[in-house]
Amino acid sequence: MKRRIDLSFLSSLLIGHYLMVLLLGSLFFFLDLAFLAFLFPLSLLAVVLLSAAFRSFFSLSKKVYRNTLLLFFFLVFISGLLCLVLFDNSWDGQTYHMQTALSLSAGWNPFYTLISSDIANATWVNHYPRAFELLGVSYFAFIKNIEIIKISNILVAWASLAASVQFFSQQAQFSVFTKRLLVTVTWLNPISTTQLFSGMVDGQVYNLLIIVVVGFLGAQHSRLLVVAAISALVILASLKFTGLVYAILFLGFGLLYWLVKKHITIFAALRMGVIFIFLTGFINFSPYGTNIKREQHIFFPLMGVAPVNIMIGTNMPEGFKDQNRFNKFFSSLTARSSNVHGSNMAPMPVPKFPFTIRLSELTVFKASSVLYGAMGPLFSGVLAISIFLLLCVFFALSPARFKLNVLLLVFVSFTIFLNPECWVSRYVPQLWVIPIIILLPLLTRPITNSFLQRLSLSCLLLLTVNGLMAGVINWGANYIISRQIEDEYRWVSKIKQTVYYTENDFCSTRKRMEKFNVKAVAIPRYSKPPQGNYTVFNPLTTKSEVFIPINTPPYQPSKFFSVLFSYVKRNR
Question: For residue 273, what pLDDT is reported?
């Protein structure tokens, strides 16, 4: 049957659009030009023209090219719509990520200036990579709704899914059912699915890594997957500090793999490395270049003089301070899925028996960041069985047949434990693929041991259910929370008297006040309102305070929302 669309082309279009925004935005930064009104249409036009120019080179028929291009625009539209329906309720997303986007939209040029230290989270806004915000701002300039800034998470997730389908469809050693299952479980990483509609970027890191891996492994079958992979590496390096480290490591591993397989020459590998360095350096003149220029560590403020320690208080329990990374990793991995729940100090993880599930381990995934057991309540059990199966590969089967899987397993494990805080699963989202890599050799058709194959398939199915539970719970909770947020601001907008509010670092409150035309006056962070009688109202999912005239009838949440969240709280 003739193909109607090309999934590798679709993946490269989605990633190429993202990269083009970063390149054009960085060019405008260098030239010190106002660019927001032009960045979005120019990037789309550039991607269309470039893809049309190279259509013949990539052997795309006119029909396939047209259909794939239409699907690309449809996915962009759907992604934007989802952003507007499902609000960001994450801490990081509503504070410094959103503040960075708002600063850029106000005309701030990070290549030449620093924003005032009086602005909330100025340290992170000034010194953190901002690929996520730059793409989001290009849409925000048109849509005028701040919720659109998280669109890159969804676009990259589509690109990862398309690349995975394309890659696994070309692997003849798997049955059709196994291929579909592998695509599904690879995509259902709980870090990615729970952050999909938030302003957090760890899930995006995972999806970019998937595009990179399948691009390098599937290079013989698709040039377009290679294009998507190299573009994904540059974006990854521009997304967060650990992203730069991962990008360098995965590029080096991929090029070495190609050299061993004789897919490319040493000269071609060096040329690709130079292109990566140039594009990454150009896009990331700020913060990496400007940090060095100001005689600071390249990863300031995490490293260098007077570094900021983010792993204190609510981010790490007191008992972890004297433990090594391996002990902390094991404790977190085998613990009940849980969060801080408002404590001043993170509690120690609670151990659990594999495959046991409490209701609280499911409801916790309503959050975009789960501290312990963040890969889902079934993950530790699946990983334990996977390690058992790995031993079976070495002792019951010929390990030489699976040397690529073993090599990939060792490399991915190295990238995980390289991070001293690997116990926080969202910092190492690639942890999700460890059992998948182990199980792959036992799912191929030539395997004659039916018991091992059935056990491997069962593990993969459990992992799929595990990922699906986390994703569905988060999406459902996000929709309910989003509707409740709307209801809160509609209630505030109906108050006839002036209300006062302090953001307390959550700039989302200001933008929602504007969206719902609330008659409100902002006051400085952690301030009190002018003289008068007021009662404090805390908008959902923020630390902001809204000062309501005391004679205002109290807000009553919807009955469904009240019943649902009292049930969740009661069963923690």
Answer: 94
